[in-house]
Amino acid sequence: MNDYKNILLAIDFTDYGDYVAQQAKHLTEKFNAKLSVIHVLDNIPMPDTTYGTVISLESESTDELLEAEKTKFIRIADQLKIEPYRRWLIWGRPQEEIPLLAKQKNIDLIVVGSHGRHGIALLLGSTVDGVLHHANCDVLAVRLQD
């Protein structure tokens, strides 16, 4: 196992998010690494915004859905004591934006939660599968139980 120095936690606001976050936090303590966090907005409409757009956490918008997502994201990052300059809220496709940011920020390890897929979900792929195939660094898929 590598000595990881920069770990990126990808969060999605599911009920299992705390478990995944604690696994990432444990790894940062074990390796004395820096923890960063990303959430990719792919479930709310973002008019006049292209994929890959970083959403400002400091400025307010008139979009209630966006503000709710920002509030959740900031709360989690604050709980994990992640420095503001290590937080990214990005509009786009998670399987593309997570590996791209990891490459830009010299991330050693991406930590993301994963459900076992079967049936049609397996055929369609998953965020974890996309991240794994696009990442230039190690990816830890924390297995989540249904």
Describe the structure.
The protein is of the alpha/beta class. It has one domain: HUPs (Rossmann fold). The chain contains five helices and six strands, in the order E-H-E-E-H-E-H-E-H-H-E. Helix 1 links the parallel strand 1 and strand 2.
Topology diagram in text:
Elements: E1 6-10, H1 17-31, E2 34-41, E3 53-54, H2 64-79, E4 87-91, H3 94-104, E5 109-115, H4 120-124, H5 127-134, E6 138-144
Parallel strand pairs: 1-2, 1-5, 2-4, 5-6
Antiparallel strand pairs: 3-4
Which key terms come to mind for this protein?
146 residues, alpha/beta, Rossmann fold, 6-stranded mixed β-sheet, 5 helices, 6 strands, globular
* Strand segment count: 6
Secondary-structure element string: EHEEHEHEHHE
CATH class: Alpha Beta
Summed up, the helix count is: 5
Give the end-to-end Cα distance, rounded to a whole number of Å.
Answer: 28 Å
Name the beta content range.
15-25%
* Mean pLDDT over the full residue set: 86
Overall radius of gyration: 15 Å
What characteristic shape results from the CA principal axes? globular
- Structure classification: alpha/beta
Named CATH topology:
Rossmann fold
Question: Helical residue percent?
Answer: 25-40%
Q: Any idea what the CATH superfamily is called?
A: HUPs
Query: Which regions have little confidence, pLDDT < 50, spanning 5+ residues?
Result: 117-124
Total count of domains: 1
**How is the main sheet built?**
6 strands, mixed
> Spatial order of the strands in the main sheet?
3-4-2-1-5-6
In the CATH hierarchy, the architecture is 3-Layer(aba) Sandwich
